[in-house]
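As a warm-up, study this chain.
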Amino acid sequence: MRRVKVGGGALQSQHSVEAKHDYEVAKGILSEMNIENRRKLLALRRPHNLVTVHEDPIMAISPSSPNPNLSILMGITIGAGVGLLLAFPLAGMMVTRS
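Now compare it with the structure written out below.
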């Protein structure tokens, strides 16, 4: 077996030098593969089309807001509800005071 002098004065066999070289090459290939894999994973996560049009827009004939009829109806309904909620406790207080 042939011995090769390496830095530091130590002797190593040709086989171990080749094995170390092969290991470094394989480590570099693995690093490149990991970088490529991460790039592909990021490409899969990113949507290709950020906007999807499901149907064409339709021009409105009349405005959707404000709707005065709906506002009046909601005011009457909420006012009646609050009035009823306050009427019973106040009526009960008046009965107990008399």
